[in-house]
Write a structure and sequence with these properties.
By secondary structure, this protein is of the alpha+beta class. 42% of the residues lie in helices and 23% in strands. The chain is built from 4 helices and 4 strands; from the N terminus they run βαβββααα. Strands 1-4 form a two-stranded antiparallel sheet. A two-stranded antiparallel ribbon has the order 2-3. Strand 2 and strand 3 form a beta hairpin. The longest helix is centred in the C-terminal third of the chain and has 30 residues. The termini are far apart.
Length: 106
């Protein structure tokens, strides 16, 4: 055994469904049901490379195309600027509201 890792089934791509399943009690099916996931046949899994203590070992074992980082945004700088502008405008509105409230109470 070279290392241990955890893989998660890709339910979104496999189109897994949630169905009612019969509940067993003492080897008998009773009248109660509970929700359960019926997994599709697709054999595709996720390995969280950022949460593992042995990520470097897994990266050296897998082909590069399977462990290559994928960016969330094509233009990271533009997206960052958009988020910063939004936060700035919210903070500006809060600051103006605080100034107005302080002026009214004095």
């Amino acid at each position: 055994i070279a290392f241990i890792f955890n893989a998660q089934h890709n339910c979104l791509t496999a189109e897994c469904t949630v169905k009612d399943q019969n509940v067993h009690q003492e080897r008998r099916i009773i009248s109660l049901t509970q929700k359960g996931v019926r997994h599709g046949a697709m054999q595709q899994y996720f390995v969280n490379m950022h949460a593992l203590h042995n990520a470097a070992l897994i990266q050296s074992t897998l082909p590069r195309h399977l462990s290559m980082p994928k960016p969330y945004f094509n233009n990271r700088v533009a997206k960052h600027q958009k988020f910063a502008n939004k936060v700035s405008s919210v903070n500006s509105k809060r600051r103006n509201a605080t100034v107005a409230k302080a002026r009214d109470t004095r």
